[in-house]
Specification:
- The chain has 442 residues and is an alpha+beta fold.
- It has four domains: 3-111, no CATH class; 114-197; 219-318, no CATH class; 336-440, no CATH class.
- It is built from ten helices and 23 strands.
- The strands form four sheets. Strands 16, 17, 18, 19, 20, 21, 22 and 23 form an eight-stranded antiparallel beta sheet that branches. A five-stranded antiparallel beta sheet has the order 1-2-3-4-5, covered by helices on one side. It has a five-stranded antiparallel beta sheet with strand order 6-7-8-9-10.
- Strand 19 and strand 20 (393-404) form a beta hairpin.
- It is globular, with a radius of gyration of 27 Å.
Length: 442
């Protein structure tokens, strides 16, 4: 996957990426589950005997992994951990993935043998970790020592230490070594010394302040539903001195509107006064972080800063220990295998939060069937015209007409699966973030 594709993927909500990965791994017959953080997908591959440790000759029967993005496996134990992230999305069968892993292990072992031979030819002492498929050598210069590691990406300078000083990690941007260009250990030593300025770890430049706009939209708090259970009501009934047990589950929700878009702030209690907060928009998380109540500046301040909409009254309270990530970028071009195809039917599953006589308030669901994203409100007649009940919830069906230049043309389907209304246009990234193909919906 190219760098541009990873940039676009990074804009899609984590729950959506998990859903894409889970569906593909399920097709391969590989079960997955959410880890202890309730965000990371993890699982275990069972092998049929094709995968052999090239360093020991022993067969590998099982391997634990975590999912990176929507299409890669990161193995957590040697020797497969030495391979780095492995693309599983290109395989249609588990045996194909198994064979690819066996081939990659053999190729890595051969590559490391070549690196070890070249380092020894430069009169360097090489230490080989056969179990982890890694090797290590040290180049000792008059004023510095350079640690060289051999792994899946070749021979790299991993650390450098001044004589008598502490080792420092070398920036990952420093390129791998091409050992073929050095005729002797002395030439390698001279190259490393001259490259010292490029190995320094420099802090990332602080982000530039956002440009002020002439007309700044207002951040508005969305009124709560009439029958909602609020903290004010609880305090009124039980009093402000009522206690919560230290491990009682608490989840608080507040909603806002900014520049015509609804956002939902969710704070989930982890233990005591520690919470995990999320600000969720139509395309997924805009901000998320863990915080202590004592250092939290207030929901309005956090939402304002995350959306780039601080007011004068909020400016003082925004300066806090809470780190805010930047908002998601605009949708761009998606990888080809994620794009819909003409005539396909895609599904958005939702749950109804409040169904009144005149209006219906609903919200999309994540991989676990739990609400996420901003809530929306439709007239009841409009909602019932396009949403149908299924599996205890509601779903919206759309049919793809065309896919062009990062956008899709689609038509909504009624409960009889007939197109209604004129064709509409949507960014493909937004479609993938909120809908799934009907053929793979579960």
């Amino acid at each position: 996957m190219g760098e541009g594709e990873h940039t676009i993927i990074g804009r899609i909500a984590r729950e959506r990426l998990n859903q894409i990965a889970s569906r593909k791994l399920s097709m391969l017959g590989v079960p997955v589950r959410l880890g202890a953080d309730r965000e990371t997908l993890e699982g275990e591959l069972g092998f049929s005997g094709r995968v052999v440790h090239p360093g020991t000759g022993q067969s590998i029967s099982r391997a634990r992994f975590v999912v990176a993005g929507h299409d890669r496996l990161g193995f957590v134990e040697p020797p497969l951990a030495a391979l780095g992230p492995v693309d599983f999305y290109v395989h249609d069968r588990l045996l194909s993935l198994e064979q690819a892993l066996a081939t990659a292990l053999a190729a890595l072992h051969s590559q490391l043998e070549d690196v070890a031979a070249r380092l020894r030819a430069l009169q360097l002492e090489v230490t080989v970790d056969a179990e982890r498929l890694q090797l290590r050598a040290v180049v000792k210069a008059p004023r510095h020592a350079f640690e060289i590691l051999g792994a899946a990406d070749g021979a790299r300078v991993s650390r450098v230490a001044p004589v008598g000083g502490r080792p420092q990690e070398v920036a990952a941007t420093f390129p791998p070594l091409d050992l073929r260009q050095f005729a002797s250990g002395g030439e390698l030593e001279e190259f490393l010394i001259s490259s010292l300025p490029l190995m320094e770890i420099r802090p990332a430049a602080p982000p530039e302040p956002a440009q002020a706009v002439a007309s700044t939209p207002r951040l508005e708090t969305t009124p709560v539903p009439r029958n909602a259970l609020t903290l004010a009501l609880l305090a009124q009934v039980f009093g402000e001195d009522a206690l919560l047990p230290p491990n009682a589950m608490v989840e608080l929700v507040q909603e806002y509107q900014y520049a015509g878009t609804r956002y939902r702030f969710v704070a989930s209690r982890e233990m005591g006064t520690r919470f995990k907060g999320r600000l969720i928009g139509p395309n997924g998380d805009v901000w998320s972080d863990r915080f202590e109540l004592s250092s939290f500046p207030g929901t309005l301040a956090v939402v304002s800063r995350a959306l780039g909409a601080p007011s004068e009254q909020q400016a003082a309270s925004i300066a806090s220990p809470v780190e805010l990530a930047g908002a998601s970028g605009t949708p761009g071009e998606l990888p080809q295998h994620l794009l819909p195809q003409p005539s396909e039917v895609w599904v958005m599953n939702v749950v109804v939060e409040e169904g009144g006589v005149d209006e219906v308030r609903y919200v999309g669901t994540d991989i676990d069937g739990k609400p996420y994203g901003a809530a929306r409100v439709l007239k009841r007649s409009d909602f019932e015209a396009v949403f149908s009940q299924a599996h205890g919830g509601w779903r919206l069906l759309i049919q793809i007409d065309q896919v062009q230049e990062g956008s899709v043309l689609y038509r909504q389907l009624d409960q009889a699966r007939q197109p209604i209304g004129a064709p509409r246009k949507m960014a493909a990234a937004i479609l993938v973030a909120n809908f799934v193909p009907e053929a793979t919906a579960y």
